[in-house]
């Protein structure tokens, strides 16, 4: 008799606080889409996290739905992945409060993102900005995932989640599964085109060095035309992140878009210089993103379909999250309703 193999669970979310970028796609979403057959995947729009920084309500609503449409356009099939909006699953906020009581003040104060965001938002250093890692721990632990795909800059949060998990389980028994960070080795960090020592960020207001998924082909080509290379007199296409970070970033993007290795790219542009290389990278990115842009625009027009996706996703997510939360409430001594 055949036995059904239970898939490992994977979970991740992105804040709809800015438009999704080429970095969001190559560093995360493209990799997510390839895992649906292997894992039971949960992906959400982290709108509750977004409000630690003041948001325009209309923009937040728009970006949340656009992000969902872009998720689907990037290959996240709602039939194979659970896609939902964080605020539609109240268990996130409920467990977030509980885990606040099991996260130490010193741990939260050491979070580098709290320090960075406090510096950028000096007039709004609110409690949520300080305690949001507890909510992030709740996001993760609710679904008992085996793996959490994160960038290097988020690894600290998964480590805190593991600390909270170990602390809670040490008191109450094996309530939560211990999650492992999953850091993709390829395409994990796409850098800003104008500042190649900084990560391409969707919160960059200027956007000049940031390529967005919904950029037009003309905008994409214009941004790559202005991309920083280096002052190397030989002006050769060679992968060297230390001395040629701009060129290395463009090569990394080109490799992800075309599937070519760095050696193949160096051979392709041997003796041709940056005037040929940068337009080629731009064209490869246009070819990769145009179908996504067109599909996302089509999905955004189908409001009924989009609503059915996030309602179905929230229903499934809430069912799983509710089981974990009921177990937590029983363990800590809350009276069952």
What this model shows, in words?
- The protein has 337 residues and is mostly helical.
- It has 2 domains: 207 residues, 3-Layer(aba) Sandwich (Rossmann fold), CATH 3.40.50.620; 81 residues, Tyrosyl-Transfer RNA Synthetase.
- 53% of the residues lie in helices and 7% in strands.
- Helix 9 runs antiparallel to helix 12 and helix 10 packs across helix 12.
- The chain is globular, with a radius of gyration of 21 Å.
- The mean pLDDT is 89.
Number of strands: 5
- What structural class do you assign from the helix and strand content? mainly alpha
Domains, number: 2
DSSP helical segment count: 13
- Largest sheet: spatial strand order: 1-2-3
Query: So, the CATH homologous superfamily of the largest domain?
Result: HUPs
- What gross morphology would you assign? globular
Nutshell version of this structure?
Helix content is 53%, strand content 7%.
List the helices and strands and how they pair.
Layout: E1 8-14, H1 22-33, E2 39-45, H2 47-50, H3 57-73, E3 81-85, H4 91-100, H5 105-109, H6 112-120, H7 127-141, E4 147-149, H8 155-172, E5 180-182, H9 217-225, H10 245-258, H11 262-268, H12 274-301, H13 303-332
Parallel strand pairs: 1-2, 2-3, 4-5
Helix pairs in contact: 3-12, 4-7, 4-13, 7-8, 9-12, 10-12
